[in-house]
Amino acid sequence: MESLDDVIDAMIADRVIHRHRRKWLIAIALIVVVVLVILFTGGWKEKQGRRVDTVDAPTTFEAGRYEFGVTSAQIIRTPKTKYDPAKARVELSLDVKNIDDEEHKSNSLSGKMVLLVVGGGEDPIESNGATCRGAINWVFVYGLPAESCTTKFDVPADFTGDKLEFGFLAESYDSDIGLLGASEDPYWHNEKAAMVVRVPTTTTTETK
Q1: Would you call 88 helix, strand, or coil by DSSP?
Q2: Which residues contact 113 (CB under 8 A, 6 or more apart)?
Q3: Global pTM?
Q4: Inter-residue contact 113 to 191 (CB < 8 Å)
Q5: Rounded CA separation 197/59 (Å)
Q6: What is the pLDDT of residues 65-120, one digit of tens each?
């Protein structure tokens, strides 16, 4: 039979183990979060090791359910007026084609699929989608030729650059098999960094 001292020692040891186990679990969780943050941003930020190819425009490539043809970019400045502050925006010219061979569905380009990579450790800037033939959020129909479009990025009024970088994401067509209660039917999701395009950029001033 165990003595009272042995029982007390066992209780103390058990508490110590549980206390340190909790600390280890917290430490592991923090490490996982840091790794996920690095993986999420590492696709764009060169200082952390860019994980995708960087090419120069003009170029054409496929990314998920779209084919992109990137041509040129410009910084457009709007001078300060009596009533409005100075502003600037970046406009990227590109051809977009729907190549969804899986679902053959029409779809508009989400603003988060094309990003302005500003560097310096800053987060990329999302676009406003695609404007084609003067219509924003243009719907790209599967099977039709590529449309000539622009996409816009709001930037600080003093933003500069003669060769800007744009990041393109690609969705994958797969299912959620393995996740609790997930659908087995594949669909377009899981956006990941696919390509960075370096584009010669001009600067112009917009007059009213």
Answers
A1: strand
A2: 63, 64, 66, 127, 168, 169, 191
A3: 0.74
A4: yes
A5: 8
A6: 999 999 999 999 999 988 999 999 999 999 999 999 999 999 999 999 999 999 88
